Amino acid sequence: MGAFAVLACAALLVGNASSFQALEIDWTEPKPSADVSSAQEGVAPSTLPPTAVSDCIDLNTATAEELQRLPGIGEKLSQKIVQYREECGQFFSVEEIMEVEGIGKKRYEAIKDYLKVTK
Predict the structure, then answer these.
(1) d(Cα 62, Cα 71) in Å, to the nearest integer?
(2) Which residues have a Cβ under 8 Å from the Cβ of 78 and sit 6 or more positions away?
């Protein structure tokens, strides 16, 4: 029995069907807030994992702004990633991002599923 039917039965059992009619329930999923102005430095807004490799961020072409969409990557760290790429050349693997100062094993584990490398 669905939640709607349970509420209807409960309202009828207590003899107050009119209170049931006044009840409005929004069963839709809440939409995520687009406001990221309150985000702290170094903490990206929550995102869902990509559904395909084509949805991932390419370490060899991403801008600093695109990199900031990654969990835990803020303005400073995204600039370090771009600077590393400019100084050392293209990335050859996703794991290579751990060569960037500030990206250790823990942070890598949090972002690896969002990354790809094209050659």
Answers:
(1) 15
(2) 64, 65, 67, 68, 70
Please check whether residue 114 is in contact with residue 56, taking contact to mean a CB–CB distance below 8 angstroms. Answer: yes
Tokens of 9: 């039965």
In tens, the pLDDT along 32-71 reads: 444 443 343 444 444 545 555 568 999 999 999 999 999 9
State how far the Cα of 27 lies from the Cα of 3, in Å rounded to an integer: 10
Tokens of 7: 């509420």
Q: Which helix (H) or strand (E) holds 57?
A: strand 57-58
Question: Cα separation of 60 and 15, whole Å?
Answer: 67
CA distance 97 to 73: 12
The pairs formed by 76-81 with CB atoms below 8 angstroms and a separation of 24 or more are: 76/41, 76/42, 76/102, 77/42, 77/102, 77/103
pTM over 0.70: no
